[in-house]
Request: fold
Amino acid sequence: MQDLAEMFTRYRKYIMFLLAIYVIGWGFTAYQSIFLGLILGTVISLYNLFTLARKNKQFNEAIEEGRKMRSLGTLSRMAAAGLAVLIVMEYPDKFHLVSTILGLMTSYIVIMIDFFFQNIRK
Reply:
């Protein structure tokens, strides 16, 4: 199995590439609220991926040392997603709700697509 840090680095590169495309779309198209929603959701999704990778590393270290781990941070990831939705609800003229929710799912979609391509590669 591949190292978690290697996979996280690859996911981070893909998400940054998507964010660059979203910023270009926001700057050069008439769909600014949709792209701004995608940017907001994807940034929160990237933050959630950071926290998940960090908690997973801590979990692995705790298992190696024989300690127990309380949580993998599900509540904080849900709170971050809730914050994104609250921002969208506060500024509905700037952000598009559906695109923000799609942006929140970006890291999971990237993980699934990467898994598919890595399996084809092997």
Summary: Helices lie at 4-28, 32-65, 74-90, 97-104, 106-121. The two ends are 12 Å apart (CA to CA).
